[in-house]
Amino acid sequence: MAAPAAAGSGEGPHGPLLDDLMPWSVRPLRTGRPWVTAPDAASLRARWERLVRAPDAERERLFGPTRARTPRTPVAALPGQSTGTGRFAREPGPCPEPVRILHGPFDEQWLLPDHRLIDEARPELWRVADGHQLFVVEHGRVPQDTGPALSVTALLPDGHSPAGRPGRIRPLYRRPGGAEPNLAPGLLALLRARHGDAVTAESVLAWILVAARSTPAGCVVPLPADSARWSAGVELGHELLRLQLRGARGGERPRLPGGRRPYVRAAVPPAPSELAYDSEEQVLRLGTGRISPVPAGAWEFEVGGVRMLELWCGRRTSAPGADGAGGLESVRPRAWPREWTSELLELITLLALLAELRPRQDEPVGGPEIGVRELRAAGVLPVAAAARRPASVLDHHEEGPDGQFALL
After folding, report:
1. What are phi and psi of 35, to 5 degrees?
2. Is residue 182 within 8 Å of residue 174, measured between CB atoms?
3. Which of the residue ranges 37-46, 204-213, 327-336, 399-408 would you say has the lowest mean pLDDT?
4. In this predicted structure, what is the pLDDT of residue 151?
5. How far is residue 300's CA from residue 304's CA, in Å, rounded to a whole number?
6. Is the pLDDT of residue 6 over 50?
7. Distance between CA atoms of 150 and 157, rounded to whole angstroms?
8. Annotated domain spans of the chain
């Protein structure tokens, strides 16, 4: 169980801290071995087969032991997963079905959900990951960064930071089934008294997506006192939410209007070695492959000072590092899969639409605010320590190490 975040100070330079408005947060996942994630599920299954069939000494090397995990480490099962809990060296079992995760901001990848392979899997996140849950991911502050402070996903996020300064993962709900919003006790009641009974946990999340700003004091979320500004911000936030969920929860996948949609003009070669962008022609080149039109806003979209398209493509085209050469990371597709091209077109579309909305995010911010003094007077602040810890699951059984059951 991850240690709770330190209590927020209540107020940043321009409003209350996200750490107080959404008090329960979890550190990013720490896999300990990069080969347990991949952009395609088939590579993970192939890596597993190579690992379990290797002789003992070779298996130890391929596994990549750390202080937290070796092939002989006893661990409990990940909540919601049916993977083995016998020590990996003794009974690896069948390959666990890879699960879709969000690897850092905007990069959907795959993970082997076996607790024996992951140094810090954050089981408390897996317990609340279901069809109702949404996760807010802080990107970590980088000076002079103009990118978004947060992203949101329906997938389990690993919280990886492209700039190497990880933030926190904040579930919207503290319990499965969309029960018990992860909001400061009393916050919903205060906002409903000010802005009407239509205020829900999801509309608060929508406002946070629009208004959150990264500062040296932490992620700050000004709360408007004016209902018109609140409504305008929530409407924009729902649009940001819809785009970032990419069709999850029954929504539509992001689409640009006809004439502006990116298309493959020349197929991506089996092993593209170069990535380039032509701003005049709005063409993205992957080796001899050509995709256009690619708006400049999509190419320039950054988080933590890192271009998201450049990072996404680099993860799929770069050769394994020295540690991965000859290891399991080298098990990857021999040729560029067609699915990656479809995912790239969707990512270009998503980033282009988000870039168009960025200037509008400043519109609802400003004017009279619900300040920390009012939050304190209403009893919303300071936040009780219990609200910063995971909710109790005393009625929930999970398999512990070596098949034992634990009552949590």
Report:
1. -70, -10
2. yes
3. 399-408
4. 95
5. 12
6. no
7. 12
8. 11-254+362-407, 263-356
